[in-house]
Specification:
It is a single chain. By secondary structure, the chain is of the alpha+beta class. The protein has a single domain, classed as QueA-like (3-Layer(aba) Sandwich). Helices cover 35% and strands 17% of the residues. It contains five helices and six strands, in the order αββαβαββααβ. The chain is globular and about 40 Å long.
Length: 155
Amino acid sequence: MAALADRSIDTAYVTLHVGLDTFRPVLEDDAREHKIHREWCTVSQECIDRIEMAKGDGKRVIAVGTTTARTLETYGQRLQQGQIGPFAAETGIFITPGYTWTIVDALLTNFHLPKSTLMLMVSALAGRERILAAYQEAVEQRYRFFSFGDAMLIL
């Protein structure tokens, strides 16, 4: 974190309480039929101020982790609905290919398991073909998957 600060890279924090359903696979043929889980998340005014400053300065908002991305996009959807300001509430956002991102510009995340909602989320940001190519490379290079594995930066 100190190295980021030394390079004038600002940081902010959000909270999302991850539920067990995060790891439940999508079993439906049509992912839109999958019932997404609800999780509690919090975005502070300080975080909102930093997002607004970054966006105003033309900088990217880079989510570290899919939970952060889910929380930030919940904030973005709330903004679109006219709900301005900090919040602490449940989220049921389900980010799949075709989703229009509102806050997150890039994502640092691990390699997720097939058939997961998280695999759909990263595909929504990078595109299915690019994610499949990245995963092929990860398999060939023997990267580690899942929560304590290797990571990728999606720009």
